[in-house]
Design goal:
globular; OB fold (Dihydrolipoamide Acetyltransferase, E2P); DNA polymerase, domain 1; 3 domains; five-stranded mixed beta barrel; about 210 residues; alpha+beta
Amino acid sequence: MIDFVEGIISYIDTDCVVVHAGGLGYRVFCPNPYFYVKDEGKSARLYTHHHVREDAMHLYGFPSRDERDLYRRLLDVNGIGPKGALAILAGATPEQIVTAVQQENVNYLTKFPGIGKKTAQRMILDLKDKLKDFTPSMVVTNAPTSLLNDGLTYQNALEEALQALMALGYSDNETQSIRPQLLTTSKSGAGVEQLIKQGLALLMRG
């Protein structure tokens, strides 16, 4: 079991980062690889979940142990696989996910890719008690305190990036569909140019 990978962020792709450690390049799938834009070429630690199948071995990485633990708890829900759990964490902050489960907000949970009403209800049934230990101070890990206390800092960057993408010809519906991912990145301190780069990659991927 690989508990974490620490090394140089060599490069960032649309669904993963490659970490150079011990002479090897580890491909680590992340909810939002662009969270690590600020760390490209620098050393970073990713807390990992090592998923082994008959035909493949994958590493899934997170900026904190709490977020990784939430990912693992999502995997405990019947009907949610490794990529599905990653998509949930890509579409919302851990705090939002935990709150939706605790408040039994089925409508919110069904907005995630691949999550229908039955799976959302199963999430609530399976996780509501298990997530009592998760508090906002533990799960909000993707944004520095200075940015969290100054919403205008990252909100302005986000809005400028969305406007730029619309100026390039993308519709409001298209840009709003990637807003959650860009919001997470903007909270990490990314600038407008980085957000536009991520937005283009997401929109081209569809």
